[in-house]
Specification:
Blueprint lengths: L4 E6 L2 H11 L3 E8 L2 E7 L8 E6 L3 H13 L4 E4 L3 H10 L3 E9 L2 E7 L5 E6 L1
Parallel strand pairs: 1-4, 5-8
Antiparallel strand pairs: 2-3, 3-4, 6-7, 7-8
């Protein structure tokens, strides 16, 4: 068994697609109509056959509440690995990404947290 898709709730799929592709550099993999919304996934450019990230609409009241509470508590919804967190932090700052936590060493890992502009906090980590 392996993880093939993981999802995050987003307030607006088009805005999320723009942020995750243009700011973060992910590549669109699937974009299929699914009723009122789309099955919209992205992948890492370095692993296009790897785990897909589904940009899932937060249309359901439970999804909205879940997303809102995590954000309010400062809890990241997911984590992305990076090879050089300081270089990635600098690259994202230059693209206008707003961080809520600068790169911080925590034991054997260094992590940072940013706002994805779509209702989520995202953590990047370097082991």
């Amino acid at each position: 068994m392996r993880i093939v898709v993981t999802s995050i709730f987003v307030q607006d799929q088009d805005k999320a697609l723009e942020f995750y592709s243009e700011k973060l550099g992910f590549v669109k993999k699937e974009d299929v109509p699914a009723g009122e919304y789309r099955w919209l996934t992205l992948v890492s450019p370095d692993d296009q056959d790897g785990t897909e990230l589904l940009l899932e609409p937060n249309d359901h009241p439970a999804a909205k509440e879940y997303q809102k509470k995590l954000f309010a508590e400062g809890i990241p919804v997911t984590m992305f690995g990076v090879a050089d967190i300081h270089a990635e932090y600098k690259r994202l700052i230059e693209k206008g990404v707003k961080f809520t936590m600068e790169p911080t060493e925590m034991g054997e890992v260094t992590l940072a947290v940013f706002d994805d502009t779509c209702g989520n906090l995202i953590q990047i980590v370097q082991k």
